[in-house]
Amino acid sequence: ALERSSVWGEALAGLAQMPRRGLRSDEVTCGAVMSACQKELRWATSAGLLAQMRWQALEPDVVSLDAMLGASEQRFWQAGRPTPSSSQQGRRWRGAARLLAQMGRHALRPEVVTYNSAVDACRKGRRWILAVQLLEGAPQGGIRPDAATCDGALAACLEHGHWRLALGMLRKAEELLSVRGLRTLVWAFASLALAGAPALKQLAAEVAQEAPALSLQELARQTWSFAALGALELGLAGALERELQARLRELRLRSSRESLAVAASSATQALWAFNFAGLGGEDLAAAAGTALRAIGRTLDEAGAGVGGGAPSRDAPGALGSPDGEPPRDTPLVLADFSDRWVLQKPSGWQVDDGVSESETALALSDFLRPAMPARQWPLLYDTQHRRGFLHRLDVPSSGLILLARTYEAYFDLQMQLSMGVLVRDYTVLCRGWWPPALRKVSARVLRVHAAAGSHPATVSPRGKPSRTGVKALAHVMRGGAALGLMAVRIGTGRTHQIRLHSAFTGHPVVHDGLYASSAAYVADSRWCRRNFLHRHRLAFGDAAAVRRQVLAPLPGELLAALRRLRPRDAASAQALRRCLSGTGPGDWAACAELAPSTADARAQEPARQTDRGSTG
Q: Are 400 and 344 within 8 A, CB to CB?
């Protein structure tokens, strides 16, 4: 009865009253209360009960240790909690290892779900060797790994660049997994970019056949995996789409917060996959839209007094000055659409959506807190949902940021982002004359765990599919150095995607301290104060599905750098004047670009080689 209690406090109170009634608590009752605490995310209470059992000389059983490990794993899923730091993640994997060792000393066999939590804790704690050892040692401990066990160990290897080891693990997967569990291979093939894997067609047929038995999360994962491999063909896509629609229609809005978050993430993941594969998915989009709006409203109603309606009076755009003019280098609210804001981020500010990029950068959420108190706007304090930020922008870069103020707006915009309806355009100055014929870069981007000052991302065949559209606006010069002014639109939002793709083609962004050579960075610093990357345009739908566009001209320090340049030709001069006048490139799809010429043939040759060498 204690374990079945939906209120952890009642279970704890029942345990406390037992001595007064002449009853002695034992391993069973303590384990039941810990299970109730786990379900309510009361990890600290679970830890206290475990310590109390030791004080009372009670031996913890498999129920209590399972509950303790599960509660510690769920600890950082609570809304509004910051993302765990490296040291916190380290404590989690050590705690998981200790709990598993304690189970072994008591001859207890953990549940596979508990084992999976330990593998995942090792992955997040960057202990990939221990994650692999847990997977390989599972059969000896009497545990049959499932797809999640293999996923965790594979992810640990892939995230740290050990893809050869991951390939070796795939060869053993058939020994460890059941036939149904082999679906994890599809995800592994996608993570390793093994588009030509011999078993892919067989796996596609198996997934299509088993689709009616798959959960929403598993359906979305398979859809993403086949799309990333370029193998989401019509037959398989149709089977997956039908089942995805069915799961979305069956969605229970009274599920836990975590379950609703998983459902929303799965819906947007599936939409992204269909859009990336160039498939329509109109019926899926309609079902997902209905489900996402319902999830958003449910989470909004769970919060206290979520705002809405008329444009806000508390927008912080005019803070810091009596006459309403904001101080220099302070963010602005450029557009207020009630449930969604468009912010202008200066260089040096961090979009702190839960993943820390810099220890010293100013946080956008701190700027917003005075205008968005937690009781009225809880989303800003919810790192599980990225504080409502729809996208990131590197700390040294500037430009527009879209912020959802309600959960309903957040999921609406997430859907637009997944379907390519939310558009992001940039103005970039690069080293060298960008070849006008090179209008797309699709090299895969792999995020790596690197030391401070090194590259957080790299181009790799093992990376995620990435697409960057480029238009050469002007060829300019400073002294004897050639530079290229370009308009950029991204189709995917990978870590440092524009900076990495620019450097990969041999044209790093001006004043880029990560992806340009140190000599180039020092030379650029003499005339350009910061990296020349600015998000100048956002286009999206508002709450009434009205199409909106917000533009942000280049900031003063980038205009000052442009004034130091001279154009190569008349077309470049016109584009340069347009940027200096404050008009800017505008809509990427409509902006004028340089025409390829015979004189650029030599510059275009490396571009053609890059295009042949890219995958995506």
A: yes
Enter the DSSP assignment of 606.
Answer: H
Q: Cα separation of 608 and 538, whole Å?
A: 30
Report how many helices (DSSP H) and strands (DSSP E) the chain contains, helices first.
22, 14
272 and 339 together in one domain: no
Rounded average pLDDT over 29-37: 52
| Separation between Cα atoms, residue 434 and residue 454, nearest integer Å | 25
End of a domain among 310, 335, 354? Answer: 310
Strand partners, 344: 332, 400
Q: Is residue 367 part of a domain?
A: yes
Local structure of 322: helix, strand or coil: coil
- Of 215, 151, 211, whose CA–CA distance to 177 is shortest? 151
Which has more confidence, 166 or 42? 166
Cα-based angle 316, 317, 319 (whole degrees, multiple of 5): 65
The CA distance from 110 to 212, in Å, is 30
Residue 472 backbone dihedrals phi, psi, to 5 degrees: -75, 115
pTM of the model: 0.72
Per-residue pLDDT tens over the stretch 136-186? 666 665 666 666 666 667 666 766 666 566 656 655 555 555 444 556 667
Which is nearest to 506 in space by CA: 603, 394, 615? Answer: 603
The residue to which tokens 């594979």 are assigned: 154
Whether pLDDT at 59 is above 90:
no
CA distances 62 to 109, 183, 459, Å, are: 7, 29, 45
Return the minimum-mean-pLDDT range out of 32-46, 115-129, 407-421: 32-46
Handedness of CA 294, 296, 297, 303 (dihedral sign): positive
Enumerate the β-bridge partners of residue 425: 489, 537
**Are 245 and 334 in the same domain?**
no
Domain housing 488: 421-442+468-597
- Per-residue pLDDT of 215-246, as tens digits, reads 999 999 999 989 988 888 878 999 999 999 99
Token pair for 600:
């650029």
Of residues 480, 489, 483, the one with CA closest to residue 562: 483
Q: Tell which wins on pLDDT, 180 or 441.
A: 441
- 542's CB contacts (< 8 A; 6+ apart) are 337, 340, 548
CB 431 within 8 A of CB 510: yes
Residue showing tokens 């069915």: 246
Question: Residues 272, 352: one domain?
Answer: no
Q: Which two tokens stand for residue 260?
A: 């609703």
pLDDT at 441: 97
Residues 524-534 have a mean pLDDT of 96
**Terminal Cα distance for the chain, rounded:** 54
State how far the Cα of 436 lies from the Cα of 429, in Å rounded to an integer. 14
